[in-house]
């Protein structure tokens, strides 16, 4: 069993409109845009990162906004719900905030004793807020959200699978331990994690297969401290029979990818070098940052990429 993985690193999803996506996460949820860059494989498409003040692993929600993308079809073989942690007693604040902004939100049945508020993103993305006790991560306070109510980072992701057995074995190999079961949902927890410590497996044997589109999670990434730990994980996965990519430099972390038995794309990402490698902390997410291989496209991209609704990151305090 591996001991290098320390919880979630980031979740990357797909969107249909960059401005709407930016507004949703920075103005409604109050996260900080910590990087404005482009998709490595499709540089005419943004890659937007939202997180806490520093872009701490376990808090980072990222998006590829493809303007012409179609809608998703929900089903098995995908991340079902991305769940954020908020302080105990804060769901009342969020109910009022969502109602004021015209966002449909609904109390969900308490899962594993945790109060949950479900809501949808601009493309029907499935999200929930969970009240969490003793989450000591410092929030980014912006958009008028009080620190006592602000999002702390990820709580968990749920995987919607036709058969959870092989993926449960994989998570156990990755260092997760079975923590609880409720109906068709089994929770796995990482010990000594970064706060984004849970993965839930929702088994849906009769459901159809999901298809990617706007609102889909493209992949979920797990955090390791550095490249040395990452190489240890890569070797162990390959020795177990998984097809794992070579290490890929993503500018703000190094990444490896592999497909799980249930069909979900997993990534293992390093905590280094971080989002301040090319911008100081006070100005994260303000300038358009391009991978070195795409820097020659800057004149085109600066006119082609649609301006974001909030071109300057509003001041906040952690």
Task: Describe this entry's structure for a reader.
There is one protein chain. Helix content is 16%, strand content 35%. By secondary structure, the chain is of the alpha+beta class. It has an 8-stranded mixed sheet with strand order 2-3-4-1-13-16-15-14. An 8-stranded mixed sheet has the order 6-7-8-5-9-12-11-10, covered by helices on one side. A hairpin with a 5-residue loop joins strand 15 (253-259) and strand 16 (265-273). It has one domain (8-304): 2,3-Dihydroxybiphenyl 1,2-Dioxygenase, domain 1, CATH 3.10.180.10. The chain is built from 5 helices and 16 strands. GO terms for molecular function: dioxygenase activity. It comes from Nitratireductor mangrovi. Keywords: Dioxygenase, Oxidoreductase. This is Ring-cleaving dioxygenase.
Helix and strand layout, with pairings?
Layout: E1 8-15, H1 18-28, E2 32-38, E3 46-51, E4 60-65, E5 78-87, H2 91-100, E6 105-111, E7 114-120, E8 126-132, E9 153-161, H3 165-173, E10 176-182, E11 185-190, E12 198-203, E13 217-224, H4 227-239, E14 248-249, E15 253-259, E16 265-273, H5 298-304
Parallel strand pairs: 1-4, 5-8, 9-12, 13-16
Antiparallel strand pairs: 1-13, 2-3, 3-4, 5-9, 6-7, 7-8, 10-11, 11-12, 14-15, 15-16
Protein name: Ring-cleaving dioxygenase
GO molecular function: dioxygenase activity
Keywords: Dioxygenase, Oxidoreductase
